[in-house]
Each structure stands twice: as C-alpha cells, then as structure tokens.
Amino acid sequence: MAINYDKMLSIDRRIVYLIIALAIAVPTIHPLNLPVTVTPDVRGVFDEIEKLEPGTPILISVDYEPSTTPEMDPMSKAVILHCLLRGLKVIGISYLIYGSGIGEDLFNEVEKIYEEATGKKLVYGRDYCYLGYKPGDYAMIIGLGEDFKGTCKQDNYGKSVYELEILKPIKTLRDFPLMIDLHDDSYINYWIIYGNERTGIKIGSCCTAVMATGMYPFWRAGQITGIVGGLKGGSEYEKLVNEKYNLKRRLKQARAGMDAQSVIHIVIILFMLLGNFAFIMKTKQSKKQ
Amino acid sequence: MKRLLLVILSLIVIIIMESSWARDEFQLQQLLPEKIEARDTPNDDGSSVLVVWSKSEAEEMAPENVQYVVLQADSPDKRFEPVKYVGVKENLCSDNPKYFGFSEKNKHWHFAELFVPMNKEFFFKVGVTDGTTTITGAQIVSAQARPNLIAWHKLNNFVILIMMFAFVILFYNLAKKNPNMFIRKIAGLEAIDEAVGRATEMGKPIMYLTGYYDISEISTICSVNILAHVASKAAQYRTRIIVPSKWPVAMSVCQEVVREAYTNAGRPDEYNPNDIFFIAGEQFSYTAAVDGLMMREKPAANFFLGTFAAESLLLAEAGSMTGAIQIAGTDSTYQIPFFVVACDYCLIGEELYAASAYLSREPRLLGTLKTADTGKIIMTILLFIGALMISFHEWAPSEIFMYIKHFFTVL
Amino acid sequence: MEFWKKRIPLIIVFLAGLTMILTYYSSRKEAVEILTSYSKWYQIIAGFALLLGVVSLGQVHIAKIRKLKSGWAYSLIMIIAFLVMSISGFIWGIEKGTPFMWIFENVTTPLASTVFSILAFYIASAAYRAFRAKSFEASLMLAAAILVMVGRIPFGEMVSRLLPDSLYFLRIDVITQWLFRVPVAAAKRAILLGIGLSSVTMSLRIILGIERTYMGGE
User: Fold this and answer.
1) Which residues of A touch B310 (CB under 8 A)?
2) ipTM of this model?
C-alpha cells in the first residue's frame, strides 16, 4: 500500500491540536513525577539570596501580565517564599498596571504557604509589604534611585509608605543589595539600565521560558546574577527551596507543570520527525518519478 | 600550701589572659591603616563621600569578628560616631571600578561610601573593632559631598557617540557626492513590492502591524517608515491597506503617514481613516482581535514589522492559515525564531532599521547606513583586541592593560 | 503650513533629543529631573491620545453595526463590553472587590490566558510545518531544536544519566546548557550589537532631521 506523503505533509492542523491537548491534559491529571536537576543559571539567583544576611531588604518586582500567570506564578511563589524563609525583608513593587492585582494575590498566597510551612505568622509592614503598581515607566525606576519613598508614596492598599516599619531604613534603591525581577517581557532591560547601572543594585531574573534565552547575554556579562526560566527554572527553584528549608508542605506547582511540558516536548519532536520523514520520502519519490 | 598553689595558679591564669588580651590589642593595632583619605564621590549627584584607607598586611591573620569601622563627626572636636563597618576582606577599591577605575593599586586600598548631606564638610576616622574593643587611629580626614555636572565614567560612551555623530555627518556628505553607494540586497524588503502586487492581483487587502510598542520606540518609528513605502505602493495599485493599532499615538501617526502616501499618489479621496484604527491596549485582546480580522478579511499579504512579544507566533500562524504572504521584521531577539518558522520573509534586527533608507533609495539616508556598518567594523576589531588582551594579559604591561580595559568597560 | 507641519516638529525633535543625550552624561539631580519630566510629559500626552483611540474604536465599530457588515455581531459585543467596563469603572471604581475588578479578574484574565495558551498549539503546528531538513542549515536548526527540547525536560536528564561519568560532556542537558551559553548567547549578542549600533544611527538621523519619513511623505 502506497503511503500518501503529500497528505502527511499537509496534515490537518486540528489533528495536531487534538493530540497536543491530550498531551497536556493526561500528565496534568496523572502526574509522572519526573526528577529535576538544578542548573547553574537557577543556582545563581538562589545563592545570591542565600548570601544575604537575615533582615536585609530585598526588592521583588512583579512585572508580568495575567496571561502568563500559569508559567510565572510557581517560580514567583518559590522565590518570594525563599526570601521570607531566609528572614529577608521583602518589598514588592510592580512596573505594570496588571502587577497590582497579580502581586497582591501572590503575596497573600505566599503568606499562607509560609505560615503552613513554618507555623509562624508574618506581619505585613514588618516582614513584608507590597507597594503595587507605580506609574512612570522607566522614570519610576530613576525616581526609586533618587527617593524611594517619595516615588512610591503609598502601598498597594493606600497606606502611606512612611508608616511602614519595613521601609524605615530605605532611602533609595542603593539600600537594596539585590532585587528580583519577575517578568514576562523585556521590562528587566529598564531595571538593568536605570536600576543596576545608576545605583549598582544586583538583579536576578525570573522569566518565561521564551524570555530565558535572551537573558543569557546579560548573565554572561554579569548584568544579572542568574536566570530562573519558565516552568523548568521554577521546578528547579522549588527543589532548592524544598531541600534547603525542609518544608512540611513541599512546593510542587512548577514540577507538576513540568510533566505536561515533558510530554508535549516529546510529542512535538515526534511531529517534527514525522514531518521530516514524509518530506524525505516525498523527495525520494519525486526523484524516482 | 594549698592557698599558695591557688594564688600561683590564679596568677598564671591572669598572666596568660593578660598576654592574650595584649596580643589581641596588638593585632587590632596592627590592622590600623597607615594612610587614610576622604574625598567627594566622583560622578555622583552629590549624595555621598568616599573614605579610603590602605590595606594592612595583618589582614590575613585577622580573626573573623574583626572589622574596620569608619567614624564620622560634624567637626574634629566633636565625638566621632561609628557609621560604617567593613569586613577586613571586603570593599577593596578594585571591587568598584566606577569610582576608582581599574588600576592595580586599587587592590591595596579599602573604601567606604558614606551618604551625607550635600555641601557640608564632615570629618572621618578609621578604626578597627572586634565587637567588644574598638581602637581608632589619630588621623582625621574630611570631605564634602558635591554634585558632579559631568559623569566622567561615561566618557567612553560619549567618545563613541561623538564618533557616530561624525560618521553620520561624514557619510551624509559623501553620499551627496557619490549617490551610488553599495548596499547588500535584503530579501525581505525586496519582497514588499511582490507582496503588494500579489494582494492587488487577488483583489484582497494588505494588513500592516507596527508592533507591541508605542511610537516612542525606535523600532515602531522604523516600522512607520516602512509603512510609508507600503502605503504609497498600495495607493498606486489601489489596494486596501488595514492598519490595526495597539496604541492611539502610533495610530494617529500611521493615519498621517498613510494619508500622505495617498495624497502623494494623487488619490487623497481613496484614503479611508477607518482602515487605520485602534483596537486595544491589552496584548492578547489586541492579538485575538487581529487574528479574527485576518480570518474575516483574509488579507493577501501580512506585514509584521516592529517589536513583538508573545503574540508574534499567534499572529504569524493565524496569518499562515489564511494563506497570506507574510513579511516580518523585528528587533526582539526572542521572537525572531517564531517569525522565521511562520513567515515567508523575516528581517532580522538591524535590517528593520535599515529599511527606510533601503526602500527610499535616498542617497543621503543610504549613506548614513554606512555609519552603523563602520561602527560594526570598529566594534569587531575592538572585540578581537579585547579577546586577545584578556587571553594574554599576563604578558602585557598590566597598568596599560588596566587602562585600556577601563576605557572599554561600561560602568 | 510647511513651517508648522515640518520645521517646528523638527526643531522640537532636535532640542528634545539633544537634551536627552546631555542629561545622560550628567550626574546632577537636575538632569534626572529633566529625564523624568520628559517621560511624564509623554505619558500625559499619550493619556489624551487615548481619547483618539476611543473615538477611532467607536467610529469603526458603530459604522460596521450600522451597515450590518460581516462580523457586525462582534462589533456589538465589543461596544457592549466597552460600555459595561467603562460604566462600572466610573460608578464603583476599580479597586479590588468592585464589579470592574471582578470582570477583569474573571473574564479578561482567563480570556487573555486562553489566547496565550493557544501558543502551545501554534508552536506544534508551526514546528510540524516549518522544521524541515531542506538544507544543511535547516538540518542544523532541526537538530539543535530537538536537542534543546529534550535537554530542557526531566526526560532528557533521565536519559542522559545512563551515560557514564567519563562521557559527561555528551549529556543532552549539558549540551543544551552549552548551546544556550555559547552559540545562542554569541548570536544574540551579535544581533544586539547590530541593533544597538543601528538604533544609535537611526536616532541620530531622526535628531538631525535627516530621517523624516515618519512625519508623512518620503
């Protein structure tokens, strides 16, 4: 029976979509629990946080949109939780208007996880705070470098930043040895240009997988301390936090997503191989004819 | 007898302890810096001063709890208060080339940056502490924080800017004299006329997107420049051009450019401002709307030129479903792979910036393209020299190497 | 007319561009203030321009509904959604717990996530269609794509562990990491360098008024 390679090459897109949907759904429902290995890119962010003494302030910028929350949330939670477990004073902010709600939910959820994991209570305004969206684009970052509180004025809930105990020792961005940018676009460029270059604040990048490849030149040049990219980076970070702090409730959201990602990668590779097989066979066939 | 023994034993213990204290104090004293200096922080806005002191050889033997301490006072007669603690192996001047450059000597000096009110003199001492005992040197130094008008650490950047300025003017004038400058073929730009022609033959519209960002981005301006060319072709061939926009400002600029193109083609009445419209500022609302528009209008040619984010493949793949010829161009390095696989032509990075000069064939614009090329040649040579110097710096005179390194480092 | 439409904007572009360049080379607070005030001005002007966008949106969709053009129902949905969001925002504000925020969190956000998630399907179909070993370069790209896709998942690491320690450098995850750190970073750097130089040239062309296509006309 002759195989119709033309048909194979122009396979109906809907068949591809159906297989992809199944490849995502099945491992999400039945996790495979595949092992995770930690890469140096992720360790770069983790170790930089570990180097900080308890009580040191750290800035976390929530710069992603609702559409990327499934990919960004797991790593964001792991990083914020890590900072809190380390005893750092976590100050959240956002460059994006969407960050206001996303950051609020994120901090609330991490607070719950922290309390469940350690049995200790966090105090808003003393252990952490969320300043929310601050308008002004890059001018906002420049402003933070000049006068942190004057630029922020209020936190996400309308409270004056001058009343927050956690911000008492903070004058400018220079008072933060490190910041972590949780981003799904190139907003980190602004933090590098106007934050790192002007004030010397170190920056760690937590981004979507698509963005991660673009972060390598910055990492190699020493402009960022490390990269936590996509669900893969998130799962590695979860592993590091789980192991270091021996959590009662282990973090596993990103790892669960990695199972689906593993299957989908294999399916796409199979598609690519199938397409190439059909292409080569068709070329051979037409040469014979 | 027992009492005598007890007294002797106590005496021995006291002597041992005394000697150990004496040794501790001696060590702390050993650490006291020989030279101390204070100065205004260079290249800053006047918010801090720097105190620098020479490194002591005894640092290697210093226990972990020993630190340097910088003490500050308003006047030399007043009490000096500790304001900064610096670990014995921390804050070497060589760690901060922004303030101290790359000299080898920096490895032998410590520094502390102290934030003080502007234009007021402060006095400093440097001491050593082990947490319980603090000893300070007699030397007092003073400095005032002053704002610096010029950021000298950006001199390297300024030199390159001036060089680029000179090249732009030089090539602009050269192009006036010799209008036939060589420029390599860019397939994506060559295909623009073909794409517009195809749309005309099929009687279908053209869709043009200027990207994710507003007109304040250079890439969007470049895209608008290409739009001017595409719109003038479309006006000549009487083909409808649709420009859905994500930003109102970019939309009004696009309207102006397309209107001008129709006027120049002698068909101002055929210009329809409703074909250049605002959709939504939200990324995926915009993407969904444009995808829907593609499905309904079935444009024969799609242009995706500008900076794009995660929507790139969503747009390009929807376009490919409708069978349109697709020309993309972006400076967003993350999105280039998506456009490469899903579009017929893709302008990579700088090709997008070269487009307006390439399409207009205006000799003076073409001439300025040579500026970027010359810059690239210079950069390549510098990269090569830099790589050689990094690889073989042990054999090069180190101070000269450090100076060159300093000049080519972004601080 | 030429004076108002071309000369004045060119003078503004030149002065604004020059000021921005000079502020970059100064450390004084005043320079930072100029820089931030420019950004604020832009945002204020862009805020007014939003009105232009809303007018454009209304014109296009109302015209479509009136003429009952194909897809007019979508335009109607758009107008209704626009009115609901605007009115609820004006009446109850946009804080958490208000109807505006409820719609944003429960309608806009899931819809945006849905559109984004379509990317997974499109990547698969684009990969199937486009990754063909047509030439040496295309084959190289195909091989790299497969290696990276396997190397970025736990499965790749599991397979790699079967290799003895002496062949560590052949592990797929190690090759993937190397691809990211060396060839990918090098290529991206080269592209970025080209973009950087071209954008400097383009900016100078705009500031000096050599490039003015964006103002209309060539």
Assistant:
1) 67-68, 184-185, 208, 210
2) 0.87
